[in-house]
Amino acid sequence: MKDVKILLNDCKCSHAFAESVENVIKELGIDAKVTRIDNILQMLQYNVMTLPAIVVDEKVVTKGKIGDGEIRKVLSSL
């Protein structure tokens, strides 16, 4: 099982991004535990300055807002 963390701030765009990530994970049938993180202190350990971001198994795989196609491409390579 993959451990997927979505680092986000509290805005509509970030929450829409998180929903897109969760939908792509379901579509691809990836066995994953998804956690949304909006606490800046928890984000610091990933050294990410651009949100939203996706972290898979403690490795940052994306930074900044990307579209569904790019999300699908990144997650399908796991």
Quick description:
The chain has about 80 residues and is an alpha+beta fold. The chain has three helices and four strands.
Question: Could you walk me through the main structural features you see in this protein, from its secondary elements to its overall organization?
Answer:
Helix 1 links the parallel strand 1 and strand 2 (32-37). The mean pLDDT is 94. The chain has 78 residues and is of the alpha+beta class. Helix 1 packs across helix 3 (68-76). The protein has a 4-stranded mixed beta sheet with strand order 2-1-3-4. The protein contains 3 helices and 4 strands. The chain is 38% helix and 27% strand. It has helices at 12-28, 40-43, 68-76; strands at 2-7, 32-37, 53-56, 59-63.
Topology:
Elements: E1 2-7, H1 12-28, E2 32-37, H2 40-43, E3 53-56, E4 59-63, H3 68-76
Parallel strand pairs: 1-2
Antiparallel strand pairs: 1-3, 3-4
Helix pairs in contact: 1-3
Please work out how many helical segments DSSP would assign.
3
Strand content: 25-35%
Tell me about the largest β-sheet.
4 strands, mixed
Q: Quote the average pLDDT.
A: 94
| Global geometry | globular
Write down how many β-strands occur, each being a DSSP E stretch of 2 or more residues.
4
Q: Level of helix content? A: 25-40%
**Ends apart, CA distance between termini:** 11 Å
Radius of gyration: 11 Å
Unreliable parts: none
SSE ordering: EHEHEEH
- Structural class of the secondary structure composition? alpha+beta
Strand order in space, largest sheet: 2-1-3-4
